[in-house]
Amino acid sequence: MTNTALLAMDLQNAMVGRVEDDAYLPRVVRAVDAARKAGVPVLHVVVGFREGHPDKHPRNKAFGALPDGAFTPGDPNAAIHPDLDPRPGEPVITKKRVSAFAGSDLDLVLRSRGIDHLVLAGIATSGVVLSTLRQAADLDFQITVLADGCADADPEVHRVLTEKVFPRQADVVTVDAWTRTLTEA
């Protein structure tokens, strides 16, 4: 599975703190641990801006109204949740918009490593997961979505995306099903 990578997306303190499912974070940690054990690269994707926010636009509904200092290097809410701290050699990709590809060097890092299969987990299903899946599909990546490794504030939106929309462009599986494939390989 050396051509596969797990993208752990927007698992920052601010986002993880909003997830109501207490079992969510332990599931994602299980997926990350299983990937590491199987030698599948883990890439951490975070949203981040420069001090003073020169890289956000006021017309952007998602990010334009962020308060000063939000998601900058000194913001503790922008840090990756400590249960998922990157290990040495695990890239942290900083994106500037919703998709993991937007304003980042993700595509360069993936192609430099020969990765052509992405496994997606993150917050929110209707945000980073949807946007990254769509762009990855357009870039001809093979995609797997860990349905219960994704979370959204709206459970119905999560359900519709994972059951009806994502299967058009990705394999959609549970964390347990995916981790079993790693031990069988």
Automatic annotation (TrEMBL):
Domain of life: Bacteria
One MF annotation (Gene Ontology) recorded for this entry: hydrolase activity
Domain Isochorismatase-like span(s) in chain numbering: 4-176
Hydrolase recorded as keyword: yes
Name under which the protein is recorded: Cysteine hydrolase
Keywords: Hydrolase
One Pfam assignment: Isochorismatase
